[in-house]
Amino acid sequence: MEPIMALIVGCLYAAAIYMMLRRSIVKLVIGLMLLSNAANLLIFTSAGMQRGAPPLIPEGALRPEGIVADPLPQALILTAIVIAFGVLAFAVVLIHRAYNIIHTDNLDQMKDTDT
Hints:
4 helices; mainly alpha; 69% helix; Helix Hairpins; 0% strand
């Protein structure tokens, strides 16, 4: 399963770089979203693809019983998803505001404007 996930991560990184090199600000934001998802999948894959119980300790025990999943990558990915959602919401509002003022989403025209 890891080689398939490595290919998926590579394809997501390639698509993200392609989208970020386009001259549209909307495509730039889509590329950033793809880059964020690729990084999350990379963390998930590097943690190991194994089945395990939730990392909960039963009452009266000192450690979990059996094989448990590692909670650190899960916490990192959950935090990254929340941060990426906040950045995406801010970027959408910023793009909408810039489009209303400049009337274009082309980055070259945004750079040359005097408004």
